UniProtKB/TrEMBL annotation:
Keywords: Dioxygenase, Iron, Metal-binding, Oxidoreductase, Vitamin C
InterPro entries: Oxoglu/Fe-dep_dioxygenase_dom, PKHD_hydroxylase, Pro_4_hyd_alph, Pro_4_hyd_alph_FE2OG_OXY
Name of the molecule in the record: 2OG-Fe(II) oxygenase
Gene Ontology terms, MF aspect: 2-oxoglutarate-dependent dioxygenase activity; iron ion binding; L-ascorbic acid binding
Entry keyword Metal-binding: yes
Keyword Cytoplasm: no
Gene3D superfamilies registered for this protein in UniProt: q2cbj1_9rhob like domain
Length: 183
C-alpha cells in the first residue's frame, strides 16, 4: 500500500510538551533543503535535531516501534536503518513559516535512501492557525490530523506540504527510515 497512514497517540500530550521542552531554543537554525540550499520560497521554518541516545532515546524507541509496526502491516518496504537524526521543526506565525509541496527523496547521501517518512504533530491542534500538513499521494489532497501525538507515515516519494502558520506556532517531529533506493 502506497497511501499515507496515520497512527494516533504515538505520544501523549504531556510527552509532546516534554519533547518540545527538551529542545534547546538556541539550537534552532533556519531549515535547509535536501541539497543544503536555503530557499525561502520553498521552506521557511526553524529546525533542530534530537539524538537517538541518552535523553532522547525514548522518543526514538517510540518512533521505531511505530514505524516497524506500520511497515510490517502496511508498507512492507525494505528498511535497513535510520541514517539521520530526528528533526524537530518550528513553524512560527511571525514569519508565516511553511513548507511548500515537496518529496523527501533527493540527491543527498541520505536523502536518496529515504523510504518512509514519519511526521508527528507536537502542538495542540487548537493552539495555532494554519500549519496544516497535507499529502497528495494519488491526486487527492488529504489533510493530516492535527491532534498532538498523532503521526503520519508516508512513503518518502509522496508529495506533502505544510501550509503557512498564521497564528502562534506549530512544532513537528520528523524521522526518516532508510533502505535500498526505490527504482
Ligand atoms: O513539519 C512537517 O510537518 C513536515 C516536515 C517535512 O516534510 C520534512 O522535514 O521533510
Ligand atoms: Fe518532507
Amino acid at each position: 500500500m502506497l497511501l499515507p497512514i496515520e497512527v494516533a497517540n504515538v505520544f501523549s500530550p504531556d510527552e509532546c510538551k516534554k519533547i518540545i521542552s527538551t529542545t534547546d531554543e538556541k539550537a534552532y537554525a533556519d531549515a535547509r533543503l535536501i541539497d543544503g540550499a536555503r530557499q525561502d520560497n520553498t521552506r521557511r521554518a526553524r529546525i533542530t535535531w534530537l539524538d537517538d541516545t541518552d535523553k532522547d532515546e525514548w522518543v526514538f524507541r517510540r518512533l521505531l516501534d511505530t514505524v516497524s509496526e506500520a511497515n510490517r502491516h502496511h508498507f512492507k518496504f525494505g528498511l535497513e536503518e535510520f541514517s539521520e537524526r530526528m528533526q524537530v521543526a518550528y513553524y512560527g506565525a511571525e514569519t508565516e513559516a511553511f513548507f511548500d509541496w515537496h518529496i523527501d527523496i533527493g540527491d543527498g547521501q541520505f536523502a536518496r535512501h529515504r523510504k518512509l517518512t514519519i511526521v508527528t504533530q507536537l502542538s495542540e491542534d487548537d493552539s495555532y492557525t494554519g500549519g496544516d500538513l497535507e499529502t497528495n499521494a494519488d491526486g487527492n489532497v488529504r489533510r493530516a490530523s492535527r491532534a498532538c501525538g498523532t503521526a503520519m507515515l508516508l512513503p518518502s516519494f509522496v508529495l506533502h506540504r505544510v501550509t503557512p502558520v498564521t497564528h502562534n506556532a506549530r512544532y513537528s517531529l520528523t524521522l526518516w527510515a532508510h533502505g535500498p533506493e526505490f527504482h
